[in-house]
Amino acid sequence: MGKVILTGDRPTGRLHIGHYVGSLRRRVELQNSGEFDKIFIMIADAQALTDNADNPDKIRQNIIEVALDYLAAGLDPKKSTIFIQSQVPELCELAFYYMNLVTVSRLQRNPTVKTEIQMRNFETSIPVGFFTYPISQASDITAFKATTVPAGEDQEPMIEQAREIVRRFNGIYGNTLVEPEILLPDNAACLRLPGTDGKAKMSKSLGNCIYLSDTAEEVAKRVKTMYTDPNHLRVQDPGNTEGNCVFIYLDAFCRDEHFAKYWPEYHNLEEVKAHYRRGGLGDVKVKKFLTAVLQEELEPIRQRRKEFEKDIPAVYAMLRRGCEEARAVAAQTLDEVRKAMRINYFDDEALIAEQARRFAEQAAK
Ligand code: TRP
Which residues contact 4 (CB under 8 A, 6 or more apart)? Predict the structure, then answer.
């Protein structure tokens, strides 16, 4: 069995740099490493609908935005199959069977679902589809026999749930499915990039995001107002680099080469941090450097996006081909699943012969 990637995003908005360092940048590297036999990148519209049932237009509008962000970031449809979840109905069928393998209490214990329920104020009015989305996500992953899921830390409980389902399925029905593994960012700052206000997570509703498609001016403005150390009032004061957004972003984005190019007084981030901690280094200078680093990474993405935006029908055509490819693979897995579960009645000549014999014997008695 080869190495297969499946991962994806909910199309509820344009992708931001949290998505980028948490997973997207890594996907592009993995795609270009040539180490994987197959790469599937899914726009999870059906999952997005689990908490946006009354707002399908939001999902509809954002599918193209996410597809453009993917292409702009460097995902290449020649190497990666980019597809839309709802266009692969096999995924629903698989989820329906998996539902029998998971208990309600197991879902209630899922930490990601727990926090999401709190964030959305669902309390007692949790949609069943939302509550069960970890099962649907297990289908997304296993339908492609994915071995590897590059994703952020918040997806860990989902992958664990998928692994449990695989073990249970294979235990009951025989070895059919593949147990996936999560691939987390190797850099701690990338695990959970905070919003520009220092709040836990980037989120559109908090207005604390830097989007991949933001203009250079928008990025510069966001960095200017970024949360730093509230006690670092004067340049000569010692500053704290822990929990300081500017430094967390630098941890996620800057490389030693950036210093020679944009800030030759220092050789690496450790030197800058040491200076900031001892006092004598102002936020403005650090922010100026961060802006330069971000622009260097984001400018090529922005440019590529502009090119792809010129031919939107071509992007939809690419997605359509991706859906067809994905569907063929999922259908193959579903054939195997139905066979393992012994619900492939019409393909099973032995079954028909056996039943015919049974009834013939009965009639002869
Ligand atoms: N839950 C993921 C998110 O919120 C999106 C997603 C859906 C996904 N299915 C997946 C991620 C399968 C990895 C694998 O971003």
Answer: 36, 37, 38, 39, 40, 144, 145, 146, 147, 148, 178
Round to whole Å and give the CA distance between 51 and 72.
Answer: 27
Instruction: Using the mean position of ligand 1's atoms as its centre, give its distance from the Cα of residue 173 in Å.
Output: 26
What token pair was written down for 241? 């680099």
Strands 148-150 and 181-183: parallel
Measured over the CA atoms of residue 162, residue 163, residue 164 and residue 170, the dihedral's sign is: positive
* Ligand 1 neighbourhood includes 146 CB (under 6 angstroms): no
Distance of CA 145 to CAs 185, 197, 236, 332, Å? 22, 39, 56, 10
Could you tell me the two tokens for 356? 């015919």
- Residue 129 carries which side chain, given as an amino acid letter? G
74 Cα–ligand 1 center, Å: 19
172-226: pLDDT as tens digits: 999 999 999 999 988 877 888 899 998 878 887 888 999 999 999 999 999 999 9
> Among 4, 10, 52, which residue has the most ligand 1 atoms within 8 Å of its CB, making it the best to mutate?
10
Distance of alpha carbon 211 from alpha carbon 204, whole angstroms: 10
160 C-alpha to ligand 1 centroid (Å): 13
Contact indicator for 312, 64 with CB cutoff of 8 Å: yes
Q: Is the CB of residue 297 below 6 angstroms from any atom belonging to ligand 1? A: no
